[in-house]
Task: structure prediction
Amino acid sequence: MGRNSYPAKMTVNNKIIEEIIIDSHYLDKHSESMNDNIILGLVKKLDGGIFIPDDVDNEFEYFKADPIALDGKKYRLIWLLKKDCSFLGVVNAFRRR
Result:
């Protein structure tokens, strides 16, 4: 278990994002309906958006997009931004019924 990293060129919360880091947590329970390509498609939908964090700690702001649609299917995307960094981290993602 680890993390996969992908280059990006997008803006979220007026912050330039140059990298998407996907945690492999989703593989534990959702590997049959989720993969990195779907997650990257969901993340692209965040481009240009302004979002209010669900939680904040010293370094990170945590967000939840629910529901977020892709190809006619609904998903939940749990993601984070780290202060003073140019990556968006995906904590988990799964299909909503």
The chain has a mean pLDDT of 94. Helices lie at 27-30, 36-44. The two ends are 26 Å apart (CA to CA).
